[in-house]
Specification:
The structure holds two protein chains of two kinds. Chain A has two domains: about 210 residues, 3-Layer(aba) Sandwich (Glutaconate Coenzyme A-transferase), CATH 3.40.1080; about 45 residues, no CATH class. In chain A, α4 links the parallel β4 and β5. Helices cover about 30% and strands about 20% of the residues of chain A. By secondary structure, chain A is α/β, with parallel strands linked by helices. Chain A is built from ten helices and twelve strands. In chain A, α2 packs parallel to α3 and α3 packs across α4. Chain B has one domain: Glutaconate Coenzyme A-transferase, CATH 3.40.1080. Chain B contains nine helices and 15 strands. In chain B, the strands form four sheets. Chain B has a seven-stranded mixed β-sheet with strand order 1-5-10-12-13-14-15, with helices on both faces. In chain B, strands 2-3-4 form a three-stranded antiparallel β-sheet, with no helix packed on it. In chain B, strands 7-6-11 form a three-stranded mixed β-sheet, with no helix packed on it. In chain B, a hairpin with a 4-residue loop joins β6 and β7. In chain B, α1 packs across α2 and α2 packs across α8. The longest helix of chain B has 12 residues. Chain B is globular, with a radius of gyration of 18 Å. Chain B starts with 11 loop residues before the first helix and ends with a helix. Classes of the chains: A alpha/beta, B alpha/beta. At the A-B interface, α4 and α5 of A face α3, β9, α4, α5 and α6 of B.
Chain lengths: ~300, ~260
């Protein structure tokens, strides 16, 4: 069986400018931040980022890596808005495909299932359709005389055809993984990580700790926690603290003080430069050392 | 501060809590999804009194037992079932939910905006994003909570339609109208609904201490005002006790709406 271990830098080496990259997690929760930081200090540019957006989106925008964002929201959870994202939008520095968060889910699902679209009511009547003029409706082929129509309102009904959100690459972060690329999530929500991986051409996982194949589940953790199987991954990198400063329970919670400092730094170019110099443009070992220094554990 | 007949000591925030709770009256066994402190108190109050079958989430990935105080630490919550985000969409699209979202703007026919102020292509102010508002509003009962009622929040036409109002749903056809139900708007000044022939916003009740003129002046469009409008009902002594002693002894409610 293939050993899929690689490094964060190996993962970033597999990416190229102009790619569409899906980032797992949700808001400021279980984001693969070590890879996000590595992208920020790489030469990559012109990326399309597809995410349930949190500081991954803000950090990449602030670092000038992003051409376009596909999202339903960008939030830091405990801070409602990411000021870096807000600044990028208000200064016209990024394009956005903003859709309902359920449409977003269906877009990943469609890509994962290799169908061009999935139908939904979500989006009908809203400005999601006018701000994304490429989105189309689809008419149900089942008319009033069809035995498959339960309610007359559904005969020939027009729904939104949410297009597949195909990704060149996807990156997710887990609590544990094994050498074969199975991933374990020890918090109660896998979010949409299986679909990000399923929708992508090249699929990468970072994790707090890599263990031997077959040892993820046991008395402490039921098999259901191994929510990501190895057919969904091409490479796995061990990077302890790799989701910092987002929440990654039970390994660690969100670093609220750090997140606040990140948010405040958006208010002033000099402050941002200082923050980026200290926490973004340094390698991961240095980053973790500086985090440790702030808040010795 | 209290107006004649309002009871000596019911705060504005407490009136708002009761108005929010009443939105879930008769809801049955569905998920109540409140956003904001006062709607959260309202949903819990409803569950503890007249809507015992309501289903509440822990704000993360589970359904929680009972209706604990809003300051309860996550570790102390008792959970009854898993509800990861992917399953939430099963609930949303099955219709077994009544959400109360916030609105940066809301308009006469019930469109809500949480996406951007100004044109979406060049926003003057970027907000959080449409989130689940488009899908929520055409799939299950949807209400709104606006803690800062003014001509800037109650506008003739919202800048980016996130949650879908009545006219937009009708124009989009049966796919949008079949389950569309914008039920209530609760603000710091009063309670509103869309129970008019043209489904335009109507004043349903004014909170104790507020006048109809004040509400009309703070609304940026022509509000339907019936000849006889009642005051928002006062909390019962039991409800007041639940809010003050059980659910919110730290008075977080007063930080969202001042008296």
């Amino acid at each position: 069986m293939a050993d899929k271990r690689m490094t964060v830098d190996d993962i970033v080496g597999e990416l190229s400018s102009g790619m569409t990259i899906g980032i797992g997690g949700w808001g400021s929760r279980r984001k693969p931040m070590a890879v996000v930081r590595a992208i920020c200090r790489s030469g990559l540019t012109d990326l399309t980022v597809v995410a349930y957006g949190g500081p991954d989106v803000g950090l990449l925008c602030a670092s000038g890596k992003v051409r376009k964002v596909v999202c339903g929201f960008v939030t830091l959870d405990s801070i409602a808005l990411d000021p870096h994202w807000r600044a990028a939008r208000q200064h016209g520095k990024v394009e956005v495909m903003e859709v309902d968060e359920g449409m977003f889910f269906l877009g990943l699902q469609a890509a994962s299932w290799r169908v061009p679209f999935l139908p939904t009511r979500a989006g009908l009547g809203s400005d999601v359709l006018s701000i994304n003029p490429g989105l189309r409706l689809v008419r149900s082929p089942y008319g009033a005389d069809s035995p498959y129509v339960g309610d007359p309102a559904d005969a020939d009904v027009e729904l939104v055809a949410m297009p597949a959100l195909r990704l060149d690459a996807a990156i997710v972060h887990t609590n544990r993984a094994d050498t074969a690329g199975n991933g374990q999530i020890l918090s109660p929500d896998a979010f949409f990580d299986p679909l990000f991986l399923g929708a992508a051409e090249r699929r990468f996982m970072t994790t707090e700790r890599i263990v031997e194949n077959g040892t993820l589940a046991g008395e402490a953790h039921p098999l259901a926690t191994v929510a990501l199987h190895r057919m969904l991954t091409d490479g796995v990198a061990e990077t302890p603290g790799g989701a910092h400063f987002t929440a990654n329970p039970p390994d660690y919670g969100r670093d609220e003080a750090f997140q606040k400092e990140y948010a405040v730094a958006a208010g002033d170019p000099a402050e941002w430069e200082a923050f980026a110099g200290r926490y973004v443009l340094v390698d991961e070992a240095e980053y973790q050392a500086r985090v440790e220094e702030r808040d010795p554990r | 501060m209290s107006a004649p007949g309002s009871g000596p000591d019911v705060s504005r925030a407490e009136s708002c809590v009761v108005a929010c709770a009443d939105a879930w009256r008769g809801a049955g066994e569905i998920m109540a999804s409140p956003f904001g402190t006062i709607p959260s108190l309202g949903a819990r109050l409803a569950k503890l009194t007249f809507a015992p079958d309501l289903v509440l989430t822990d704000g993360e990935a589970a359904l929680m037992v009972g209706a604990p105080p809003i300051a309860t630490r996550p570790a102390e919550l008792v959970r009854e079932a898993a509800m990861p985000y992917r399953s939430v969409f099963d609930v949303v699209w099955s219709g077994r939910r009544h959400i109360m979202m916030m609105a940066s703007q809301i308009d006469r026919t019930g469109n809500q905006n949480i996406s951007a102020i100004g044109p979406h292509a060049h926003p003057k102010v970027q907000l959080v994003g449409v989130r689940g508002a488009p899908g929520n509003s055409v799939n299950h009962p949807t209400s709104y909570w606006v803690p800062d009622h003014s001509v800037r929040t109650f506008v003739e036409q919202v800048d980016v339609v996130s949650g879908v109002g009545y006219a937009r749903a009708a124009a989009a056809g049966p796919g949008a109208t079949r389950f569309h139900d914008v039920r209530r708007v609760v603000s710091n000044l009063g309670v509103f609904d869309f129970e008019t022939p043209g489904h335009t916003m109507r004043l349903r009740s004014f909170h104790p201490g507020v006048t109809v003129d004040e509400i009309v002046a703070a609304t940026g469009f022509t509000l339907a005002v019936p000849d006889h409008v009642a005051e928002t009902r006062l909390p019962t002594p039991e409800e007041l006790d639940l809010v003050r002693v059980v659910l919110d002894p730290g008075s977080q409610r007063d930080r969202e709406v001042r008296s």
